[in-house]
Amino acid sequence: MLKRKFSCLFPKPQDFDPLLIESKTAATVVLMLSSPEEEVLAKACDALYKFASKGDENKATLLGLGAVEQLYKLISHEDPTVRGNAVMVLGIMASNYDVKKLLRELDVTDSLISHLVPEGIHELNIIPPLLELLKSEYPVIQLLALKTLEVISKDGEMRIMLGENKGLDCLLTILETDEFSDLHVEALAVLGNCLEDVHTLQLIQQSGGLKKLLSFVRESTIPDIQKNAAKAITKAAYDLENRNILNEEEVEKCLINLLETDNDGVKVAASQAISAMCANLASKRAFGLQGIPQLVQLLSSDNEEVKEAAVAVLVNLTAASPSNASAAAEAEGIEPLLNTLHAQRDGAIANAATVLTNLAMQEPLRVNIQNRGIMSVLAEPLRSTNSQVQSKAAFAVAVFGCDADARTELRSAGGLGPLVKLLHSKNEEVRRNACWAVMTCASDELTAGELCRLGALDVLEEINLSKSRKNNFSEAALEKLLDNNLSQKYSQMGYLSSNNIITDGFYDCGQVSYFK
Fold first, then answer.
1. Is the pLDDT of residue 503 over 70?
2. Of residues 148, 146, 121, 246, the one with CA closest to residue 196
3. Rounded to the nearest 10 degrees, what angle do helices 456-464 and 472-483 cross at?
4. Which bin fits 166, alpha (ψ -120 to 50), beta or left (φ > 0)?
């Protein structure tokens, strides 16, 4: 009976040459459970199984030797044979009252459920009996059945079988029944797995179940339910057809509602779901009309994870969407976005820079952001060691550096030095954006001269000599630097172009000699 009970968890245990033990050598075999060798572990478990099966006294002996704790660790071992043999020993030992008590304390059931093997499960046709267990009068049995369904419903075939056996209706009934409130979190977790399949989601929608599900989530005040629902929507929204279905059922209202909860975990999960749904243009418009003010408020959260999740959503919402960019500005989002450039998380900083550049595609917003001192704020992200932050900060400098006052601000804030250092980056995107930023900033003589003094000219010449490192912006940046530093250009090139206008301060320092 015990063998059958656990057979769906692991592959069939492998037989080894017998390792015979008696009570006086049991301690030695228990010590073998700490061996790093898989074959030794499997043999030890096999021997302990035979020893424990001889009677309750032997089980008590193994308990006293600490075998249960060692075996508990082995049910998570990477080798399937070791796992299987360890479970077999625990199974035979579980008939002892004291062993059973310890297994409950160790919460071994959850660990066993988490290691269910789909191939074992397919053969057993386990869905119908599990659904039958949901009718049990004992809540603990119902709970374990749902936890098992949650694990196995991660498998596509299992989800199909669940739908064929009317399991979806059963799960929705649990959610609709207040008496089963203690099972709602687990039931929702199973349904969440099912939402990943287009076919299953269509079935739930056609039966009216999806509308009921979203209504249930909107009305719930339990954070775990809200969070699990948002995570389920996120997983479902990675599929195009699923996004369309969710949009038809106005999932946006549900997610916006979740942003207003008091639980930070729920806010993060809801933000991630909104980010995923933004790939649907209708959803993106809906969130722009209703959700941007709430997201802007989250930028001022004390929780760094919430802040990072919210600004990540704003990246997707404002990308190629002038109306959403305007909505973010109207919601007074510029100042919180600038503050987020000082955030603790690199992801938040990089995304804040991206949102600000998205907004800057509209000239009035660019001027607004620039007047609030963005260039002095960007000096610090330019010094970051994170390549994503470096890249986004350099790109922001390229976008806002088209204004003379902005360039002066960056120069005064000491931002040109870190920018020149980024030209040395081995990261192609960082190097490209740094070249772009240098090209933009070299638009006046003062800034161009400072960039040359900091070594930008030498680095750009070196980059342009390399086929693998040069890019369109590196060549343009070098040209712009020389055009705004004519003395250097004449020394370097030996000539000036017809559009190069000499002003006071030009001098001929002699042509650079490359040979000695």
1. no
2. 246
3. 140
4. left
Indicate the SS3 state at residue 196: coil
How far is the C-alpha of 434 from the C-alpha of 393, rounded, in Å?
9
CB of 276 closer than 8 Å to CB of 237: yes
Sequence-ordered list of residues with C-beta below 8 angstroms from that of 371, at least 6 positions apart, any chain: none
Residues listed for the chain:
516
Q: In sequence order, what are the residues at sequence separation of 6 or more whose Cβ sits closer than 8 angstroms to the Cβ of residue 379?
A: 410, 413, 414, 415, 418
Q: Coil, helix or strand for 425? A: coil
Pure H helices in 331-427: 334-340, 346-359, 363-371, 374-378, 387-400, 404-412, 416-422
In single-letter form, the type of residue at position 292 comes to I
Q: Are 442 and 481 in contact (CB under 8 A)?
A: yes
301: left (phi over 0), alpha (psi -120 to 50) or beta: beta
> Helices in 402-515 by DSSP H: which ranges?
404-412, 416-422, 428-441, 445-453, 456-464, 472-483, 486-493
pLDDT band (50, 70, 90) for residue 205: very high
Which residue, among 245, 152, 150, 171, has the nearest Cα to 213 in the 3D structure? 171
Evaluate if residue 394 carries a pLDDT over 50.
Answer: yes
The letter for the amino acid at 483 is: D
Burial class (CB in 10 A: 0-12, 13-18, 19+), 55: exposed
The CA distance from 441 to 404, in Å, is: 8
Is 490 a residue whose pLDDT tops 60? no
Report the alpha-carbon distance of residue 194 to residue 156 in Å, rounded: 9
- Cα 511 to Cα 493, 494, 495: the distances in Å are 8, 6, 10
Residues with Cβ within 8 Å of residue 178, at least 6 apart in sequence: none
CA dist., res. 244 & res. 279, Å (int): 10
Structure tokens at 487: 């003395």
- pLDDT for res 114: 75
Residue 244, CA distances (Å) to 14, 239, 413 in order? 49, 9, 48
Confidence category of residue 115, pLDDT binned at 50, 70, 90:
confident
Q: Identity (one letter) of the amino acid at 247?
A: N
Q: 512 burial class (0-12, 13-18, 19+ CB within 10 angstroms)?
A: exposed
CA distances from 445 to 183, 238, 432 (A): 70, 50, 22
Beta-carbon contacts of residue 53 (< 8 Å; ≥ 6 apart): 92
Amino acid at 249: E
The Cα 394–Cα 437 span in angstroms is 6
Token pair, residue 60, equals: 């008590």
Q: Which residue has the tokens 């086929």?
A: 467
Structure tokens belonging to residue 63: 């308990």
Evaluated on CA atoms 85, 91, 97, 103, the torsion sign reads positive
Q: What type of residue sits at position 387?
A: S
- Please, are residues 225 and 184 in contact by the beta-carbon 8 Å criterion? yes
